Fold:
Amino acid sequence: MAGPEPITLVIDDSEDDAFLIGQAFEKQGLGTQLIHLASGEEAVEYFSERGPEHPIPHLVLTDLKMPGMGGFGLLEWLRTQSFYGKLPVVVLSSSHDEGDILRAKQLGVHEFITKPSSFEGYLSLAPTIHDRWLSGNLAGQNKEGLNKA
Structure:
């Protein structure tokens, strides 16, 4: 019997992009519980209120360019938090800027992915993200490491 679905936080000010990500996972039959937050501030609030309503995610997918606290601000905050410092974070951004990629990696991002320009692109991307970050023992190890922090 399979365990509970892994939890993925999608932090993106675009409701359309968050919807496409969710639809791609669903259409591909990839089990994950997606929680959409629209800004870095919402993410900080989510992480600050641990408990049943705010489960520890297995993965964070974040955009960089958002109003208010963007992805870089969130990454800087996350890396200062001992409890979340090991949380796998993947940037999913429309940016192709080498400076953005370098800065994200310096802030500890595990992977930087350019957002697809079509739903078909999201359909292709979903299994890659799932296999790299959410499948099998890796998801359990990610969350187990956080539970020990």
